[in-house]
Amino acid sequence: MTGPRPDPERVIREWLAESAPDRAPASLKEALEEATSRPPDRAGRPPFAQFRGRRRAGGIAAAVAILAVAVSGLYIIGTFRSPSPVSSAAGSAKPTGSGTPTAPATSTPGLSSPTPSPQPQPTVVGLPGSSWSVVRGALPGLTGDQAYWRPIFALPSGGFVAMMGDPADVRVFKSADGISWDELANLPSPLAATVSDVTESHGTIVVVGSVGGKPATGLDAAVAWTTTDGRTWRTSQLSPADGSQVYQVAAGPSGFLACGDNPEGMELWASADGLDWHSVAQTGIQSAAQPQHLFGTADGYVLAQTFAPRVWQSSDGIRWTETYRAPALSGLSTYVMDSILRAPDGSYRSFGGIYTGTGIAVPGPVDRVIWSSPDLSHWTKSAGVRDPGEIYGFAAAAGGFVAAGTQHGPVALGPLGVWTSDDGRIWKPLAGLSSMPDTQVVAVAGDGSHAVIAAVDDAGNMLLLVGDGRN
Question: Under 8 Å CB-to-CB from 377, ≥6 apart: which residues?
Fold first, then answer.
């Protein structure tokens, strides 16, 4: 249920049009066009969703890699669904340009779900030579449609939420440690739902995603679901069914802030309590900007742009100041920045890279750029750092950082690989993984104390690896 993100093709095309309108080779444009227009495969995934941005040769590979960089890999997968159209939508008004919030979005209470059926007892086995545990049977396996979704999210205050099941029947699970899981409810939605992000503040959990949409365009009505007990949910429609998407949500001093876009560009929504939402007319962020990463702190909010990285900060979610812009590179090459992670020492990291303009994207041949900041305002980038394997995603935990993917090979399904690092530069492989079957990593989440890695085999069976980030 990885949710809608900024349209990959639009991100690339707008960046090319603004920064290199005359330098994009015809082959690159043709590759983009072909990669985004070919019909889905038999599993319902578009061609580039099958590869997760792995290194490939040829025109389609170039488009695949570019698109993977533009939305940071995880954000592509699972965004291509064909649910029923929205039957009615009373959404929030568009920004007025005055900085004054507009009328709140419609909010409707959700019904408490029936008591879930008892879950089978999971098996927990210590990983040989490691402090990590392998958990099987704690969460249901993934269906064919869900096979490439990101189903697990870490909560800022600690613990994890899992969103499982078919888009028409999203089941909610919660865990304090990533090992023991309780099924709480089903997300109330008369239409197929897609979840893109989860956050929590003072006992209120907010889930953002989309419902409805036309078969040719995918999900297109941004919504939020809110709960205080995990069992009774209220649904708020953030926008009418006009192609708007919401892709991240964060908690800060003014309440909850969600970031997305509409056909005209970037859009922000705010809520003091997670129930009543309104569209925000922000200032200080140029209309051509495309921030994809949202991060909340006790002092305010941070937005970061993936492609040609830029960072903005705000104390209230309305007035923004640009605090960092990555240096430009020659030709079509540009730096890229991924999600922002809080390190155990209180500083921040983002594991990004360089797009070279040749169809090679993160991690390029083998190198990755690490962005570091002590305060989210001042950023420095490392020299190239060698990736330990084919990385799917990163998370922060008590021991430092965790990366997970496959041990080798340019394929989505391969020997499970997990690596730990104190600083994000030197990575150590997790012991005891040689006997693991070929798997696809679908989630890497960390709450600061625990890290949870979810992987499925080709039959959809799920296993969890749970540890503290140390080897």
Answer: 311, 313, 323, 324
Angle at alpha carbon of residue 209, lines to 206 and 213, rounded to 5°: 150
Q: In the beta sheet, which residues pair with residue 172? A: 163, 185
Contact assessment for residue 284 and residue 296, using Cβ atoms and an 8 Å cutoff: no
Opening angle at CA 352, ends 350 and 356, nearest 5: 160
Q: Hey, what's the torsion of the CAs at 157, 159, 163, 165, to 10 degrees?
A: -170
Using alpha carbons, select from 384, 448, 456 the residue that is nearest to residue 77.
456
* 67 three-state secondary structure: helix
Q: What is the CA radius of gyration of the chain?
A: 21
Which residues are registered as beta bridge partners of 275?
Answer: none
Long-range contacts from 25-33, C-beta under 8 angstroms, 24+ separation: 27/59, 27/62, 28/62, 28/63, 28/66, 28/332, 28/359, 30/59, 31/59, 31/60, 31/62, 31/63, 31/359, 32/63, 32/66, 32/67
CA dist., res. 254 & res. 315, Å (int): 8
331 vs 184: CA distance, rounded Å: 51
Helix (H) or strand (E) holding 61: helix 59-70
pLDDT tens, N- to C-terminus, the chain (471 residues): 444 444 444 544 454 454 444 444 444 334 334 333 333 332 222 222 222 322 222 222 233 333 333 333 333 222 222 222 222 222 333 333 333 334 344 455 444 444 455 556 789 999 988 889 999 999 998 766 665 578 999 999 999 999 988 878 899 999 999 999 999 999 998 778 889 999 999 999 999 998 875 555 555 789 999 999 999 999 998 987 777 889 899 999 999 999 998 888 899 999 999 999 999 989 999 888 889 899 999 999 999 999 899 999 999 999 999 999 999 988 888 899 999 999 989 999 999 988 876 654 544 445 789 999 999 999 999 878 888 888 899 999 998 999 999 887 655 567 889 999 998 889 999 988 876 778 889 999 999 999 999 998 877 889 999 999 888
Reduce the DSSP state of residue 234 to 3 states and report it: strand
Rounded Cα–Cα distance for residues 401 and 340 (Å): 12
User: Among 168, 269, 281, 164, which Cα is nearest to 224's?
Assistant: 269
Alpha-carbon distance 309 to 326, whole Å? 5
Find out whether 235 and 277 touch, Cβ atoms under 8 Å.
no
**CA 11 and chain centroid, separation:** 16
